[in-house]
Structures are given as structure tokens and as C-alpha cells.
Amino acid sequence: MTSKIGTLAVYPGSFDPVTKGHLDIARRARETFGSLIITISRNSSKNALFTLEERAKLLKEALQEEKIEGVEVAIFDGLLVDYVKSRGARVIVRGLRFISDFEYEFQMALTNRHLLTEVETVFMMPDEKFIYLSSSIIKEIALCGRSPAQFVPKCVAQALQKKFK
Ligand code: ADP
User: Fold this and answer.
1) Which of 25, 52, 59, 105 maximizes ligand 1 atoms within 8 Å of its Cβ, making it the mutation to test the pocket?
2) Among this protein's residues, is 135 annotated catalytic?
């Protein structure tokens, strides 16, 4: 696949669990930047439903299911900018849904730029049909006994069913 910009990008998040919204951003980032690493921070485990390893496994399965190729999934310790630097990446990708995402993302992007000047945070918008999706809404739907199958890849729907059985 030819990318629009040949560089390595990192897409960080909690992915607890990965949704079709996350995957939409991953596809766009992969097509834009060429090389992509999806990373889960070890710090993002507080109150998580899935363990880090489960989340990474689900991400890998979901990428396969959605036929998004050539994306690495990794878990990192410490600060995101240190991980980005250690991998020689120059771009951090984040997804933007609503104005409510903006304040936190703005703060993070500017802080990361102060910590690592050569890094650029790039915001991508998902297809409108995924704009309202979040991992927490998915978990709530599953917890209440309804199927979130239309919002998540099959492997995640199955994993949620198992968790809440
Ligand atoms: P975090 O806890 O770091 O916000 P998330 O896993 O919730 O981690 O989200 C990771 C990134 O994906 C964030 O940039 C978030 O805004 C984005 N994201 C989450 N859900 C969607 C969605 N439905 N559409 C587009 N981007 C999304």
C-alpha cells in the first residue's frame, strides 16, 4: 500500500476495548503515514476491564479481522514521548470526535511538544458513523446484557460476552 507520507506514526490509547472508531482511525493513519504502531500505556490500566495483554491481543485480532495490514501493536512503560523517541517516530496520532475531546487533547499535544520538540500530534476524524462511539459506552451496553456487535469487531463482541457472562 502506498502511503501519502512515508513516516512512522504512533497511535496511543487505552483501547479498553478497541472499537470500530479506533479501527477507522488506525486505517486512516496507516494509509496516511505508511508505518503505524498502536500503543497501550502500562499506566492506562487503572480501572480497565481488560488486562493490557488482553487489549493488545484483541487489537491484533481486530486489525486482522478488518484487514488493516502492517500495523504493530505494542505496550509501553513510562512517558509516551520517550517511547515515541525510542522508536524513532515523529508523529503522534489521536482521534477527534467531539469538541469535548478537544480540551484534553489540546493540553496533551502541547505538553508533548514541550517534552519532545520534534514530535507533531496529528488529529484525525473518523467516519461520521463512528463519531459517537467510545469504549465506555460499549462496556455499558455489554454490562446491561445487550450486544454491542455493530460497534466492535467480532473478537471484541465475543470477549465482552465472556467477561459479562
Ligand atoms: P485514551 O484513554 O488515551 O483517550 P482511548 O482508547 O479512549 O484512549 O482512545 C484512544 C484515541 O482514540 C483517542 O485519541 C480518542 O480520542 C480516539 N478515539 C476513541 N474513540 C474514537 C472514535 N469513535 N472515533 C475516533 N477516535 C476515537
Assistant:
1) 25
2) yes
* Ligand 1 centroid – CA 22 distance (Å): 6
**Separation between Cα atoms, residue 62 and residue 36, nearest integer Å:** 15
Higher pLDDT, residue 101 or 60: 60
Identify the three-state secondary structure at position 132. coil
Q: pTM for the whole thing?
A: 0.95
Q: Is the pLDDT of residue 3 over 90?
A: no
Name the catalytic one among 4, 46, 114, 165: 46
- Which of 92, 55, 96 minimizes the C-alpha distance to 74? 55
The predicted pLDDT at position 1 comes to 65
CA distance 41 to 32: 23
- 3-state DSSP: the chain helix, strand, coil percent, rounded to 5? 45, 20, 35
Q: How far is CA 28 from CA 53, 91, 93, 122, 138, in A?
A: 25, 14, 10, 12, 22
Closest CA to 9 of 48, 45, 38: 38
pLDDT, residue 98, reads 82
- Answer whether 8's CB lies under 8 Å from 89's CB: yes
Residues 100-116: tens digit of each pLDDT: 889 999 999 999 999 99
- Other Cβ atoms closer than 10 A to 30: 22
